[in-house]
Amino acid sequence: MTKTSTCIYHFLVLSWYTFLNYYISQEGKDKVKPKIFANGARWKYLTLLNLLKSRTAGFGVYQPGSFRQLLQTIFYGVTCLDDVLKRIKGRKDIKFLTAFRDLLFATLAFPVSTFVFLAFWILFLYNRDLIYPKVLDTVIPAWLNHAMHTFIFPITLVEVILRPHSYPSKKTGLTLLAAANITYIIRILWLYFETGTWVYPVFAKLSLVGLAAFFSLGHIFIASIYLLGEKLNHWKWGDMRQPRKKRK
Known about the structure:
The protein is an all-alpha fold.
């Protein structure tokens, strides 16, 4: 039986991410920032496909922030549904939903959130103009920046500590993560060819070889985070890998 406190926590987190998605969508209606969410911009960024991405009117720069929030909203929506059904029907009747919840967390929610948190703040502290130009401070509230790039990590870490998650085999998990990463890179390149502007300023400073190296290192980094998540889960809860199906 899922603890009531756990259900309440998941509901509060889901409400938080739902609010962030709503707030970001309303930003596009602000007459002072008419182009911030132009060309489907809020969906460009790893930070907004985790909420929603955006172009700052008049400055030709993009604000990271939305894939992460959307991804987290979906994950916690599935988690809340899993909590409720377990309290109503019991564990045996919803094995598929629980397996999907765990797969979503293991292969996307944890690695993407941790990657965004680390990558954003490493680049920000090194040279903020590479990732989040100072001009964005005039259109993006400080609390929203932290909601998209800071709070996401401790919330995800609490989920690791709060309950166990069954991990797929390394081959399956890393393959799904690689597929998501490739899809995102294709999206970034497509947006560049469509608009002539990179979603992150750092890309504009790199050569073709530099971009290839950046994307390759980024994938190695996020794959390492996936393995770290598996280790943390094992350290806290023991071996929770999904059992392999026996061949007949």
